[in-house]
Description:
Blueprint: E1 2-10, E2 19-25, H1 49-61, E3 67-71, H2 79-91, E4 95-100, H3 105-108, E5 115-119, H4 136-149, E6 153-160, H5 167-174, E7 182-187, H6 206-216, E8 221-224
Parallel strand pairs: 2-3, 3-4, 4-5, 5-6, 6-7, 7-8
Antiparallel strand pairs: 1-2
The structure holds iron/sulfur cluster.
Amino acid sequence: MYIGGFLKNTLVDFPGNVASTIFISGCNFHCGFCHNPDMVGICDESIDRKKIFEYLKKASEKNFLDGVCITGGEPTLFPRELNSLISELKDLGLLVKLDTNGSNPNVLKELEVDYIAMDLKTSLERYGELSEVPHISTNIKESIDFLKSSKIIHEFRTTLVPGLVEESELALLGELLNKDSRWFFQNFRNDVVYDPYYLGVIPHSKARVDELVKTAAKYCRAKMR
Ligand code: SF4
């Protein structure tokens, strides 16, 4: 497992907490709209884990850090290393949040984390456009079902990518969630993307975003982030 990036302080990556963020490189998706394109492939060099832990230990001892967000890429691709990273963070007394695309439900079920944020990219029927992982739609559904019945604090989140997430996709996804599921949205941005095609895709207007979130709100607790 390669650590491709480290952010010392963030107030947005781990809701309600002051956190650091660890970026794990490597992903089994190739979302053209990806806002973290450097993390899709495996980085050539891992950031020095020892230095990261020195900082985290100090920050935790001085009480100016509540937790760590582990994001990607897709961290569940490396279950053994991910589990040991989580244990080390817990040993420092830190809370741990995981960001995931939901492609590895069996890994998700085994993790001892405090918070999981799972992306819902598009309707299950269209996941094949984003990943060649076998049975990807079934896996995504299994991860959704696991989170809905789990005691782990969790949220679902969706980037409103024009053409990929419209009313029909939101309705199909909404049917899979519970009334009290929390579903957060962000508008698509075309400044940093994985596939240059998306540089030319115009983000939704504020009015259109409001319409889409209103559609999602028929099914659960949907909000813009
Ligand atoms: S958006 Fe997430 S799941 Fe998609 S390629 Fe980027 S890191 Fe992977």
